[in-house]
Amino acid sequence: MSNKEHRPLDAIISPKEGVSAVWLVPVIALLFGAWLLIKAVYERGVYITVQFNNASGIVVGKTEVRYKGLPIGVVRQVEVTDDLQSLLVKIEMVSSSEELLTNNTKFWYVTADVSFQGVTGLDTLLSGSYIRVQPDLEHRGNPSRFFVALNEAPELEKSTPGLHLTLKTQSLGSINKNSPVTFKQIPVGNVSGVQYNIDDGTVDISVFIKPEHAYLVKENSIFWNASGFEFTGSLTSGIKVKTESIGTIISGGIAFDDPKFSTPLPPAKSGDEFVLHPDFQTAEMGHEITLMLDWDTGIDRGALIEYQGLTLGVIDAFSKIDPKTRKITALAKVSPRVVPYLTSDSQFYTVTPEFDLGGVTNLHTLLKGPHLSLRPSLKGEPQTTFNVYAHRPAYTYDEPGLHLMLTTNKMSSLKVGTNIYFKKQVVGSIQAIENKTSEEVLVHIHIKEKYKQYVTSNTRFWNTSGIKVTAGIQGLALKANSLQSILAGGISFGTLTKGSTQPVKNGDVFPLLANRKIAKQSLPITLSVNDIKGVKMGTRVIYRGHVIGSVHSIAHGQEYHQLAIGLLPEFDYLLKSSTKFWLVDPKLSLSGITDTDALFGGNYIAVAEGKGEVTNKFVLHLNPPALDTSARGLQLTLISSTGTRLVPGNPIDYKGIEVGRIDSLALSEAGDETRISISIYEQYQHLINHHTRFYSASGLTITTSLTGFALNAESAETILRGGLSFYNPKSDAQPITQEGERFTLFSDFDEAKMAGKAIKIKFARITGLKPGLSIKFHQQKIGTISYVDFASQTQGAIAYGYLNDYGKKFAVEGSRFYYEEAKLGLVGNKHIGAALQGGFIAVSPGNGPPKADFIATNSPPAITALPFGLNITLVANSLGSVRVGNPVLYKQVPVGSVIGIDLAESADKVNIYVNIEKRYRTLVTSETQFWNTSGFNMEAGLFAGVTIESESLETIMSGGIAFATPKPSTKSNQVLPPTFKLHQSMKKEWRSWSPKIELISH
After folding, report:
1. Which of 694, 697, 783 is nearest to 745 (CA)?
2. Structural element, H or E, at residue 897
3. How far apart are CA 574 and CA 562, in angstroms?
4. Tell me, what's the pLDDT at 635?
């Protein structure tokens, strides 16, 4: 191994070219800082100032500015203006919004709002209120950093998906922003804005329709204001109220629909304009026409156009008023449905209420107001301009129906428009009135198509103007075809004559008769009379109380006068040779008025039907003749011993129905009686038999008592004019068939009814005795005292009377009659009803042979038993205060009563007859004790005080009887003794008796 020397190596240093990497760190830091600076400058927000009237709810650093829900700014500062009227809110907006901030940019404050349109700003309830911005997306404005906030949200942006329309109207009404827009009451949109259009003077309403409903709006859709209520009313249909919804009632709303009478067009486009009509009725009228009105027509804007009660249009505006031609040009809107009927032959005329002495016409216009009516036509050329008639024009013969002419010399209250009636139903009207001469008027009438078959060549027309009055004591009746015929007149018609008929055609002429009476009297007869005094044109012919004809003309002669009479055709059966006619002076009274001429009608001609050959020539008698027994009906004679107020023609009533008439009255040859000839109508003659009792039904019968007041009369006519009636007692008598039978005439119904059995009663006491007293059994009337003879008796009097058919059984041996009157006291009042009537004659029945003469007793006979309950006899040494009717008490409960009092046969005792009600008969046993409870017992002591005992207040004042029973015996079928002793007071041990006794169930 060799040793080598080791020496250190020297470093070789070589210089390096370029920059050191260390410097990259500060360079990078510098670049990053520069980037941050540039980024901070680039992203720096834009500061703006917005002026608000109210900053309530705005919080610095929290309240955001939002656009479509995204925050694009925040409030940095809030200051008050120098004038303290508003607030300046400084907002930092994102830098990207700078280009959108122009003077067209809009800011408004959003908070929750609740209204009838719904709830808006609902999101603010959770996130708080915020400021919303509508930027200038189209960059139409100039850059700005100062803005004035809106008080409410602006109109919806046109870019919002959906349909944006403009509605033009003359008046906004209650429509507001956000008011709903509905289609068939379905909400489909809302009002997005409202502004006044200065160019055309209208209000432009911006409407937004939601996208899903946009297809519902067509190019010809109609819009109307649906705000509030819509009232329609008339006299016939009443009042109707329409509304779209509750929201539209208060805050307004708009509705639209497709037109009903035209084909819908394609859907509308955004930006289309429509007219907003004030209501649905106006919206429905889409066709415009021009009407030329007279100067004084009275039609105003909004007046309706109607046809047969249907509203077809409305006056929309007046375009011209010409004072020279005195014409007014009106623009009207009508429904498209009537356009085909608007031709040169169509007629418009005004309808207004008319008041005059003749009546009221067009009364229904008082609610609707003056309006126009349309008479449409399919004939002629289409036309849009029409002259309006002041009154309804006459129909042309082309109008369906029957066109006739009536001739008359007196119009009364008839005028154009007056109704034509058939059986009180309106079937036509007067179309025109033409004066032919000073004595003849031609009336043009029209009968509706569906009624024209009722007119024949035998038809008669008559004037029904005014009313017909039927009046009497029974009441007042007014007859007229209708209210309008009362005031405005009318014409009626009917086929009143018999015979063949001929066809009727337009233009035929008929006479217009004065009234229905003349029209119906088509059966001619002739009456001859030598004295025409009391007869005149129009003198009535009356048969059985009914007017059946009148005098139509009088031909004068030297000895005889001929009266031409017209009778109703249905009375042709009267034209027989033995029929009698005579002149009657009615001596006008208040008994009845058959028509408006009856007050001054004077004499009339009466008719009595006869038999024989048919004839139409008769003699008019000046006095009522006696009828031949061959005359129709039952001829009878009544004999009256006293004068009467009856006159020929007075009725004979039965139960309120007229069944006959008085024919004549005459004195007998001796002059001591009146003979009355009467006729009973055929249909009622079966009511007359040999037991029938006729009586005078003239005047009133008044019956009064404490229980009531009764006023009786057969009829109002008999009260004033007199009349007869009859009473039939129940019997099996056969009807009379022999003519000329004679009957007695009783003075009144009571006399006739009570004429069953004549009796006489001798009274020793005459107090209260007088004619007219009732004879009663247990308060039921069975007869009447008709005469009292005082003169032939030195003491007392004899009363003559009748028992009725029920009371005849009391006219027997053993019956006892006595005078009863009202007894008034503190208790026990008796026969109160007799206080006003003056007492009555009571009867106790007997059971012997028939008898007619009786002697009255001075007191009621004692009643010893009743057919019901338990009858017992009490024996006392003296009567004390016991009276008939006193109560019998058990434990102070009334269980019976005293029914009779009499002396014992030996006259040493008094027998008191008591009846115990059936339910309480088990209370009486052989050991029962009775005592007199009259008055009261009083016990007094120095320390015990005063004790008063009595059964009841009634027994203190009027007396009474009480009894007590010990424990009943166990013996069955216990026999009661024939009499019980009546003690004068109660023993102490009786007071303790209180056994359990089972009562008899009802």
Report:
1. 694
2. strand 893-903
3. 19
4. 85
